[in-house]
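Hi team,

Below is the intake form for Inactive heparanase-2-like from Carassius auratus. Please confirm the fields before the structure is written into the shared record.

FORM ID: S-0412
PROTEIN: Inactive heparanase-2-like
ORGANISM: Carassius auratus
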Amino acid sequence: MPRQFLCPVFGSSLWLALILQSLISSAVTYRRPVSGGKRQSFLERTLILLDVNTRSPVKVLNDNFLSLQLDPSIVKDGWLDFLSSKRLVTLARGLSPAYLRFGGKRTDFLQFHNLKNLAKFRGPGPDYYLKNYEDDIVRSDFALDKQKGCKLASHPDMMLELQREKAAQMQQVLLKEQVSNIYSDVTLTARSLDKLYNFADCAGLHLIFGLNALHRNPDNSWNASSALSLLKYSAGKKYNISWELGNEPNSYRAMAARSVNSSRLAQDYSLLKTLLQSVRFYSRANLYGPNIGRPRKNAVLLLDGFMKNGGSVVDAVTWQHYYIDRRVTKVEDFMKTRLLDTLSEQITKVLKIVQTHAPEKRVWLGGVGPAWAGGTNNLSDTFAAGFLWLNTLGIAAAHGIDVVLRHSFFDYGYNHLVDQHFNPLPDYWLSLLFKRLVGPRVLAVHVAGLQRKPRPGRVIRDKLRIYAHCTSFHNHDYVRGSITIYIINLHRSRKKIKLAGTLRNKTVHQYLLQPFGTDGLHSISVQLNGEPLRMVDNETFPELKPRTLRAGRTIAMPPVSIGFYVIKNINAYACRR
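The structure came back. Fields below:
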């Protein structure tokens, strides 16, 4: 977390006055335990003073800041044919407006085939595996074609169950490919592209399609024939799509025994830009890249060379980050403060390069997930992973990262937001609250901890992470000028937070997220203010009811929990316009 947003402003006379006033208030309200009673722990007595600069935002982000990603593996394991599910579309619509990036490790193995007679080619989707159901799926496709507007379907339970069984078998194949870095081709038909676009369009998501950059000519230049075929087909359908070329080009040598240097990569993007301009419908389409991997030595050199050799052709600079690999086996690993801080270090590296060559360019963070290679069962799909996810959103916003793309909304592995029964996982509910409550204007946070033996900032910076934004203008439950604060408490003890300065004596709406059930941090269920969160039906979300905290009340954050706090009617100048 950046220090400028966490360090208390001790030089301010106003701040000193606030601290003194709070000390007096604490002394008045503190009661010594009666003799023989259990002495209150030192950590629980620690009081955090919190204020927010409401005059002007420190960063203004994209309205689609929290966005989504789908991996091309859904073509292989068959789930692409089920994207028309009413429930899945409803869940995706809950996170709109957002971008939907179709990309991942298999981006560079995608082959587009504009096939009209689908019966002549059946790729490894559910209609290939479910031999007894092939005719049913074809009939379902024809039924969807007859619908106008959004094409939605209700799939039989038996078909879904068999699809889950077959997808589970394919998942082992996909994981082996990812771990070994040896991938097989993925065939995307015109029909598959139609289904993908229908899903994005129905859910209110803007599709970003990642093109295969490893389709190369003998001289190692990019072979754009397949991309041009896809562009022409999409233009004919008037599909509103933005584009990207390749995925983690710094890893091509390991993946395909082929190297693409920064100069060649910049030429490839220039060629793609020319192609887009040659197809009238996409002459003004956005282009994003180069989508490098984690900014280590090779990736940093590639990004620097790309920006130096013509990287200005892209509309936003993209890169990827994940926290941990699949060897992690303990929930405690998801709560290590040193691990959470690695993102800030990597963002700094990327921003330095971009600001050197193209300071006006926006930077996007893509491929974000708790863990690499599909994640870890009973860890990266549990409540514990939410600490990493919200930490990513908070740190990225504080640094001015314009968009964060979550890998993945729905597919194989354990990093997704929605499971294969179409049930929301903890990170989905966290994302839904973020979308509804948090706006794109980022505010500076000032905090101070009052302790007997002061350790400046440590208790705050390491284990208690606090961020503030203007409340989303899309949320009509709150008037403009409201502020949303979101807090991660990694402590094993309760933390008390006193609102100070401009936040004093204001009514607060609390949205407290905690694991539901006996599994604790391993739980895949979430409770909001003590009530479990579940979909009412395939098209209806539960009511997200806040708990009202009276004006002046201290916020009590339970151990290892996540909270959103909306400061109502504060009329913050930074949030009125």
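SUMMARY LINE: Residues 1-44, 117-131, 451-459 have pLDDT under 50 and may be disordered.

Thanks, M.
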